[in-house]
TrEMBL record:
Organism: Scytonema hofmannii FACHB-248
PANTHER family in alphabetical order: 2-AMINO-5-FORMYLAMINO-6-RIBOSYLAMINOPYRIMIDIN-4(3H)-ONE 5'-MONOPHOSPHATE DEFORMYLASE, 3-DEHYDRO-SCYLLO-INOSOSE HYDROLASE
Cofactor(s) listed: Zn(2+)
Swiss-Prot/TrEMBL keywords: Hydrolase, Metal-binding, Zinc
Pfam families: Creatininase (PF02633)
Domain of life: Bacteria
Protein name (Swiss-Prot/TrEMBL): Creatininase family protein
Family label: Belongs to the creatininase superfamily.
Length: 248
């Protein structure tokens, strides 16, 4: 059930049976010469909708822009500052808590969001308690990173070994190829790729990772692999969601 394709009465009826909601969150950032700018949001959205169907859970509109400041030296990247993303999460959760939701399951497609999401959860719990919103003490937020699912990680290792890398990875590119086969890109990839550098400023990032990849070889991606990653992530995160929503 997709929130934006529902009416308020349908949401009210849903709340009679469940207090859980799935929130896909991604990023709008460069993904190397063959990866789509929307990769992280596309992956999170597709998997979140799959989990929503499998578990009968409501799925919120995708949070398409995340924390990607270190990618902003590449054109097309849009980033929120961590402080802005914290406010955004706080506003989402506050509105939905007022409506009666208490279990917030963020399906995340971008490693750069994790630290800020965890900070946002702490800010949100305190904010809800300060406002003495009904059910504030019952609110629980969790971040589930599809790319860190055990089954996904294992398949990526089997298919790509150390050419999986850590950004613009063949696994995430494969998943976007499965979801949007009409947008598959071809571009030459140099055999040399930046790897192992720490992340500092956007300019520093581009200097160390000149084509935007981090140790990855996305030329290995195929839409068929993407379907395998999709199925594994939906299965594992459906279990994760049900466990989360049914726990005290
Ligand atoms: Zn990504």
């Amino acid at each position: 059930m997709l929130l934006h394709l529902s009416t308020w009465q349908e949401v009210e009826a849903y709340l009679q049976q469940s207090r859980g909601i799935i929130l896909p969150i991604g990023s709008t950032e460069q993904h190397g010469p063959t990866g789509l700018i929307g990769t992280d949001a596309i992956c999170a959205e597709a998997i979140a909708r799959g989990v929503g169907e499998a578990t009968q859970a409501i799925v919120s509109p995708t949070i398409n822009v995340g924390m990607a400041l270190h990618h902003t030296a590449f054109p097309g990247t849009i980033s929120l500052r961590p402080s802005t993303l914290i406010l955004l999460i706080k506003d989402y959760v506050t509105c939905l808590t007022k409506a009666g939701f208490t279990k917030f399951y963020f399906i995340n497609g971008h490693g750069g969001n994790i630290a800020t999401l965890k900070a946002a959860f702490s800010e949100t719990y305190a904010h809800l308690e300060d406002l003495q919103i009904v059910n504030a003490e019952k609110v629980q937020c969790q971040v589930a990173n599809w790319f860190m699912c055990g089954s996904v990680y294992k398949l990526a290792k089997e298919l790509y070994g150390n050419q999986e890398g850590s950004h613009a990875t063949p696994s995430e590119v494969a998943l976007t190829q499965y979801v949007y086969p009409e947008a598959i890109k071809q571009a030459p990839l140099s055999t040399e790729v930046g790897t192992g550098h720490k992340i500092y400023s956007a300019a520093n990032f581009r200097q160390h990772y000149p084509d935007g990849r981090m140790g990855s070889n996305p030329a290995l991606a195929t839409p068929e692999h993407g379907k395998q990653f999709y199925d594994l992530a939906v299965k594992e995160l459906s279990n994760g969601y049900l466990e989360f929503v049914n726990a005290e």
